[in-house]
Design a protein that fits this description.
It is a single chain. The protein has about 270 residues and is an alpha/beta fold. It has one domain: NAD(P)-binding Rossmann-like Domain (Rossmann fold, 3-Layer(aba) Sandwich), CATH 3.40.50. It has 7 helices and 7 strands; from the N terminus they run E-H-E-H-E-H-E-H-E-H-E-H-H-E. A 7-stranded parallel β-sheet has the order 3-2-1-4-5-6-7, with helices on both faces. Helix 3 packs parallel to helix 4. The radius of gyration is 17 Å and the shape is globular.
Amino acid sequence: MSAGGRVALVTGAARGIGAATVRALAADGWRVVAVDRSADDPRLPYPLGTTEELHAVVRDASDGQGTVVPVIADTCDPGAMVAAVGQAEQRFGGLDAVVAAAGVVAGGVPLWEMPDAELRAVLEVDLTGPVVAARAAIPALLRRPAPRQGRYLAVASAAATRGMPGLAAYGAAKAGVAGLVRGLAADLAGTGITANAVSPGSTATPALDESARLYGLASPEAFADQHTVGRLLEPGEVAAALVWLAGVGTGGITGAVLPVDGGLAL
């Protein structure tokens, strides 16, 4: 079912799951504000999404129709995120869903050996970022008149429930995301707005490439052995779950963390 012109804001939009979610929402008829830092983080040893990648996603998703707009913003900056939400309201007249998909990975060593800067980057981007997105966007979701069908969505990880060596900080941040959506679901009771997350397994993204490097693996394909489906997930598969949860037919689901993990948690 088409979204009928509903409006979403997606973070981490330049590549990976965020980019796939922008494309999938646009294909379903959503108007989208695509947000990304579009710059490297000096605290991290691998490159992040670029301005060129963000604009390419927007071009592909909007097909010249102006239904997807790029916003360069640090997702951990409250002022920048409020401004991005303001663009959604000014450009498209309101906001119906926010998808906090921006994320990074770092570690590869026991927590007590992890460099302080990397630790802060993981906790800030992977947990503070979704919190900032909620605080910036939920007031806009509430500004929609009742009865409303607002959606707060975030990307957690199988690492939220499964201990992974060298990734304690990452797992802690993603477990925090799971707790965040449960708390938000309680806060949003009776508003018509739901809060949920998806929990991906090993997904073919640049972040998984970095995870393979941290573990000294020749290829990220090695992670496929952990999945009962016998392969890595594609970003579009995770995006499909997010688009489904964003739809008006899922109002009975809130406070949930939906596994999209290829059977990793089994």
